[in-house]
Amino acid sequence: MISVAFQHHLGQLPFDVRFEAPAGVTALFGPSGAGKSTTLKVIAGLESPKTGMVTIAGKTLLDTERGVNLRPEARGLGVVFQEPRLFSHMSVRRNLLFGAGFRKGGTLGLDEVAGLLGISALLDRDCPSLSGGEAQRVAIGRALLSAPHALILDEPLASLDQSRKSEILPYLARLRDHLAMPMLLVTHDLNDVAQLADYMVLMDTGRTIASGPVTDILADPVVAPRLGIAQMGAVITGQLNAHFDDGLSQLNCAGGTLLVPLTDDPLGTRYKLRVLAKDITISLSQPKDVSALNTWPAIVRAIRRGDGPGALVTLECGGDMLLARLTKRSLDGLELREGQACWAMLKTMSMAPAQIGA
Amino acid sequence: MMQLPPEVWQAVLLSLKVASVATVVMFPLALWVAHLLARGQFRGRVALSALVHLPLVLPPVVTGYFLLIAFGVQGPIGGFLADFGIVLAFRWTGAVLAAAVMGFPLMVRAFQQAIEAVDPKVEQAAATLGAKRFARFRLITLPLMKNGLIAGCVLAFAKALGEFGATITFVASIPGQTQTIPSAIYAFLQVPGAEGAVAWLVGMSCVLAVGAVALSEWLIRRGRRA
User: Fold this and answer.
1) Backbone phi, then psi, for B193, in 5-degree steps?
2) What is the ipTM of this complex?
3) Does any CB of chain A come closer than 8 Å to the CB of residue B225?
4) How is A162-225 classified by DSSP, letter by letter?
5) Which of A67, A141, A318, B15 could form a disulfide bond with A254, CB atoms 3.0-4.6 angstroms apart?
């Protein structure tokens, strides 16, 4: 459990940040300049706010009212920065073991962490010889081996190109599945949020705007527009149950079956899928004669009319929430109301499943 | 081979002793001052920097004069030290003080640049891993500034070997006691027929100076390979 509340001034930008994150992975999401990194610095003790309070796993790290402000070295957090910040004069092994020399009682061993992060073969290498992705994995391992109560990551993927990013993401997912430690991940990429996080905190211009489970926030028609029109879309989970000869695979989801472009993963693999709001259309009767292959029965749960010509509709499909974006004109034409039964059509080719812990 | 006066070897050995002791003595102080100048946020930082660099711009004879005033047996500091039986003026220890004061700015400059080249973000990372201030300095900052440390020591050592003005003003040129290589060269130049001794001392100066630079290059290269 991570609990954060603080007020601060940084240049012209007033900060008012407050959120609570349960165990598991929490994404701190927002555009550049929203104050995500500053929030993380306050949590790590690298920046001291005027007033505020930070507790992690029951331990008070900062409480300005009671005059508590632990130094970074006393906070017991594993911090991963945007850049690896490795100690270039030490081998990979000595980098990894650096924190263990100061904090005892870590439950993770060098071999276990190196195995989880795929860096066992790098232990005796010099840091300057590592690639960007390797160096960032070493930095994550170094933080994990310092016996932390929580792992906080400040856009650990931001300095990497797309291929390096996809090299690291699976490792982060493995950490999430293998460790009981709370993780706070700063990111401005909604795909990272969808793939890794259970809970998310939305920030903009120094403020926390919303927080809640990722599936709720991404399907919330009031909050979702803050994420940007192109980014809007809910997250659902599905399990692979068939491959077909025509290049499609079938997933079982709560709302029905879903056909997606063929994957080469084994049957039974679980996926998190991001269904973009613009890829969903709504029909009042069961659709026939349409090209969209995936049609699910749905119930309208929320409607939000935008300032422009668009509107957002939250649909419940067998317990999963989907978010659809349509025009106000279609909304009025269909006379959609909350509680109304309808059909949601999902475009097959737009599904890009992001695999999570196999 | 011609017979060399004993003063030649005395001067060489004394110079080596004075320069070595001066380098060792000023090292911790230079490290502390360099860290203050590089990372400190306090009033009087500019004044401290100016004071440290003063011997670099003052005529060395003037620095020697100030040392004589302050550390002479009648001087405020010298008188105090004399109560404890410590006398610097006209002793080899005084030559050490003169060499250290003159070499100090060079050492501080080299160290300060080396500290400034160490990314504070890396020290920050060490802090989040549990390293306290001193551990961070010892395990991260100090090893990362190694080349600067070597360069600063070599510069200060070479400066101490060659220091003349402040030394001769503060401790004179007493053969076997305070006569270092430069003051010996100066003394032998006044003596007719001592050209051989002068040539030896000049050659020795060159060998020591080149040797110090070569040693530092070797240390730096070895550090890169390891």
Assistant:
1) 85, 5
2) 0.81
3) no
4) HHHHHHHHHHHHHHHHH--S-EEEEES-HHHHHHH-SEEEEEETTEEEEEEEHHHHHT-TTTGG
5) A318
pTM of the model: 0.81
In which element (H, E) is residue A143 found? helix A132-144
Q: State how beta strands A77-80 and A150-154 pair.
A: parallel
Amino acid at A55: T
Q: Which residues of B touch A46 (CB under 8 A)?
A: 124, 127-128
- Mark out the alpha helices in chain B (DSSP H runs): 6-39, 45-57, 60-71, 76-83, 92-116, 120-128, 133-136, 142-144, 146-162, 165-171, 181-189, 195-225
Q: Give the per-residue pLDDT at A349.
A: 59
Considering only residues A86 and A176, tell me which one the structure prediction assigns the higher pLDDT: A86
Question: Percentage of chain B with pLDDT > 70?
Answer: 97
pLDDT of the residue at B152: 95
Looking at the complex, report in whole angstroms how far the Cα of residue B128 sits from the nearest Cα belonging to chain A: 5
Distance CA(B175)–CA(B8), nearest Å, equals 9
Interface test mutation site (partner B, options A98, A103, A138, A140, max chain B beta carbons within 10 A):
A98
Contact present, A2 and A18 (Cβ < 8 Å):
no
Core vs surface per residue A252-283: b (16+ CB within 10 A) or e: ebebbebbbeeeeeeeebbbbbbbbbbbbbbb
Nearest CA in chain A to B127: A73
Distance, in Å, from the CA atom of B46 to the CA atom of B37, rounded to the nearest integer, reads 8
Closest residue by Cα to residue A217 from A333, A346, A323: A323
Q: When comparing pLDDT for A269 and B135, which is higher?
A: B135
The arithmetic mean of pLDDT across residues B64-69, rounded, is 94
| Residue A42, CA atoms < 13 Å, CB-side half-sphere | 30
The pLDDT mean for chain A works out to: 86
Q: Do A77 and B135 touch (CB under 8 A)?
A: no
CA distances from A328 to A85, A161, A279, A325 (A): 50, 39, 16, 9
B142: closest chain A residue by CA = A89
- The beta-carbon neighbor of A72 closest among B128, B139, B144 is B128
Nearest CA in chain B to A75: B128
**Chain A residue numbers touching B149 (CB-CB < 8 A):** none
Question: What does the H/E/C string look like for B190-221?
Answer: CCCCCHHHHHHHHHHHHHHHHHHHHHHHHHHH
CB atoms within 10 A of CB B226: 7
DSSP at A74: G
**Residue B1 confidence (pLDDT) above 70:** no
Q: Of A114, A104, A9, A88, which is closest to residue A52 (Cα–Cα)?
A: A9
Residue A357's pLDDT band, with cuts at 50, 70 and 90, is very low
Contact A143 B128 (CB under 8 A): yes
- Give whole-number Cα distances, A281 to A163, A293, A302, A313, A335, in Å: 32, 12, 15, 10, 15
